[in-house]
Amino acid sequence: MFLIKSCLITLLCLISALAAGEQTTSGKEFQHTCSVDFEKQIHQDILINHCVACHTPDGEAKHTHFILSNDPGLEGALFNEQVIFDYDKPVEIIRKSNGKNHEGGKLLEQKNLSFQYLALFIYSNFVIEE
Ligand code: HEC
Question: 110 alpha carbon to ligand 1 midpoint, in Å?
Fold first, then answer.
């Protein structure tokens, strides 16, 4: 689980997965052909840029179960990847980043490519039980 994936995602891959409506049930199927560069696209572009302002041990969201490292480097990325894998409601990470029932507000627009990378990362690494 500590592996940082660094394979390029293609837009085609994402579109076909979404078009097939597979993102909730069979993320595993496209995991091998379509993955996200966690350190760059999730850790730096999303967590560091949009989430660590509050989700740190001293931040506004310090009382939550989602406490991140604000180290932008590899160590921080490894730590934050583990935080995501240890978090028991992974879909909430997607929903809250989009402002759904989130005191921290809307950080990522749904049409934003970062939001789609985040959704792809979560759905391709977790079996989601609705
Ligand atoms: C302005 C401060 C702020 C920012 C920035 C922020 N959050 Fe939050 N977040 C909160 C607060 C406060 C809560 C607790 C109340 C709630 O659930 O909305 C929270 C709760 C959460 C939870 C639920 C944690 C739990 O205990 O189950 C998740 C998941 C989450 N945020 C994800 C994110 C993500 C992902 C980002 C970045 C894209 C982000 N937040 C950015 C303030 C923030």
Answer: 17
